[in-house]
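User: Can you predict the 3D structure for this chain?
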Amino acid sequence: MVKGTFGYMDPEYFRMQQLTHKSDVYSFGVVLLEVLCARPVINVGLPYEEVNLAGWAKSRYQKGTLHEIIDRNLSGEIAPKCFMKFGEVANSCIKEKGSKRPSMDEVVRGLEFALQLQEAAEKAGGVVGEFVLDKQDLSFTIQEETTTIVNSHAGLDSEIVLPR
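Assistant: Here is the predicted structure, written as structure tokens:
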């Protein structure tokens, strides 16, 4: 043990707990969840499994039910594909191991793509879709006409079909 300014400290503990770029990513992911759910990170007045926002949201994301905990003011305002991408980005930020988290550049690219999905849905005639839980899959009802966006996020080319 080393005697430091704040008393005795174990230097190994602080090496293991030091802040990194990946801890910044985790913190940013928590902020994304705060925005999405409009609630504080810790709320001791809630049932045990809901006290910690990051843990609760991660559990809901894994079960395919993240849409059930979003801020009610966002309901009908956020396009389903945008929501799915936003949730994916936030969830990737709060991975337990820092090495599994994306870089901030990847986070920004993911959020920019979520914005493109939102703008495409709005341009196509407004936010179309309603979240429906079907066997723990997040799905949504759509109108018949569609538009396609080519996603070259992270060097992978894929097409996403959006409702018009």
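DSSP finds five helices and six strands in the chain. Confidence is low (pLDDT under 50) at residues 1-10, 132-164.
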